[in-house]
Structures are given as C-alpha cells and as structure tokens.
Fold this sequence. Notes:
The protein is α/β, with parallel strands linked by helices. About 35% of the residues lie in helices and about 10% in strands.
Amino acid sequence: MGSAQSKAEEVAVRQNLKRNKRPLNILILGHTGAGKSTFINSMQMALGHKWCDMARSGSGYGQNITFLLTKYEMFLDENNETPVEGYAHKVCFWDCAGFTDHGDDVYVNFIGRVLEGCVPDGTNVLDASNQLRDDAERVLSQFSERDPSRKFHRIVLLLEADKPLPRNLMEAVRQAAEVRDRAIPLFLLITKLDKIGTNNQAYEERKQEALQALNLVGENQKFCETYLYCNAKCRRNHLQQFNPVAEIDKRLMAFCFNLTNSSYEQGTVYENP
C-alpha cells in the first residue's frame, strides 16, 4: 500500500485522466541509457500498482535496446489493479531511441519533425539520427508529411543524476520545443537519484545548470528528480513482479499530475481526434 500522500496524488491524476477527452501524445527523450523505457514502465506501475513490462529497457548506462519510435497507450484497464473511471484512453507515451549528444541545426530540425508528427510509429530513429550528419537532406525528405494524430503535446527529457549533462542534446531539445508556432511544454525528469549520495554538490550544480539551460528555473511543476522501479532497492514478489514503493509512486504521480494537467493546453493546437 502507498502512503496517504501518494494516494492523494494518484486520485488527482485519475481525475485528470477522466477529464481528458482529447489525445495527449507525450514524447520521451533522453541520452542513451537515461532510463526512458524504465520510466514508462514505472509510471504505469505507480498508477496501476501492477508491474507490466510494456517498454523494453536497457541494462545500464550506454546500453540501448530502444531503436525505434514506439507508441505506448498508458493506463489501460488491463494494466491497472483498479481501472480509471471514465478514462478515454487518450494518453500515449512515445519511447524514442536515445539520441547522441549533438546540437547541430540538423538535429534540431529532425526532433522538430518528430514533434510535428512527421515520423511514424515504428521508425528506426537511431538509424535515421546516425545518418543525419552524412546525408541530412535525404533523411529529412523521408519525414516531410505531417500526421495530426502523431503531433506531440508534451516533451519529457530524461537526464541521469550520476552522469555528465548531454549539453548539446539539451539545447537541441529546447530549441525544437520553443519554435514559435510549436511551443510545446518541456518537462525535465532526472532519474537514478538512488545512485548519488546526500549533499552531493556536484549533482546539485548539474541540476541547476540543466534547469537554467532548459529555461525551467522556478518551474518546479515541470521538474522531477526520482529513482525508478528496477533499481537495486526494489524487491520482487513471488510472481517476480516488483512490489510497490511508496516514494517512487509519490514522486511519479506528482509529476504525472502536472504532465496531464489541462492548464498547459493554452496555445496548444489540437487536431480533431
């Protein structure tokens, strides 16, 4: 059982999901090994209280199993111990292959194509991004047709608490998100908090640098630092599924509440579902 606070935050998330009747596509970006797939699985666990290996994850820093842009429908009834009443199943997390730490205009352009719905589900994003330096015009020409159903409404950038900042990637994501006719809300999630000690000055400096670089200073509702399920402290039950961890659930549900909050719809252009 979770704490009273995590339960209250879960109730608030469920209310958001019940009210949300429009598609909400959320792009999960980050350096290779940042924990994007693990984040998706952990978010599902935090609300559903039932472990599901929805998204395959790597085995550590620098390990990358995700090669594709992959869409996951979140919080489906069959994945929750208690279904979300009135939920229209409109929230989708899109797991994107880990980008290398480049910040050239061509990478900004490619991320922009993803955000605008030009890159289909199942595209080998890793191959495409690796080919950009050699033949950007050809690669970008393959992704010129927009599909409104793939347009993104939020971005979550994952960084690792115990690793150097991917500064070029951070800048590329910020630029792509802030294009005037796009203006997509950008959220920051720092993972692997369990890998650093308390009063870690180097981490605090990296965190503040990241918040400043992404224009998120003072935007606490768009920032979360946490550890995720699958870390060394998690315990499995007799079915080899993870037992709930109240602290993880509390942090992720608070983050999810802001992520699914309709207050960010100002300026966001939705196509008809």
